[in-house]
Amino acid sequence: MSAIRDRLIEILNELSGEKIVVLLNFAEEIMQEGEGDCVDEELSLQEKEMIKISEEEYSRGEHVLWRDVKRTGV
């Protein structure tokens, strides 16, 4: 872990103050969430069924491309 911490410090030393503030805010949010919030949750049966249906629709060609439906130049 020491190598990771050292690398993080190196990166911080290279960043502008503005970007350091962004990282600080992110780090504070992570600390507030707690360790249990990052646990992968098992999908519900309904979610698994929705994924299965969408994969079947995609394999049948029932989909649209983003460039065909976007409304503004991105």
Describe the structure.
- The structure is a single chain.
- Helix content is 66%, strand content 0%.
- The protein contains four helices and no strands.
- The radius of gyration is 21 Å and the shape is elongated.
- The mean pLDDT is 85.
How much beta, percentage-wise? under 5%
> Ranges with pLDDT <50 over ≥5 residues?
none
Major beta-sheet overview: none
Shape call: elongated
Q: Please give the share of residues in helix.
A: 55-70%
Give, in order, the helices and strands: HHHH
How many helices? 4
Please give the number of β-strands.
0
pLDDT averaged residue by residue: 85
Q: Radius of gyration, rounded?
A: 21 Å
What structural class do you assign from the helix and strand content?
A: mainly alpha
Distance between the amino and carboxyl termini:
40 Å
Write a short abstract of this structure.
The chain has 74 residues and is an all-alpha fold.
Secondary structure elements and pairings:
Blueprint: H1 2-14, H2 17-33, H3 45-59, H4 66-69
What keyword list fits this structure?
74 residues; mainly alpha
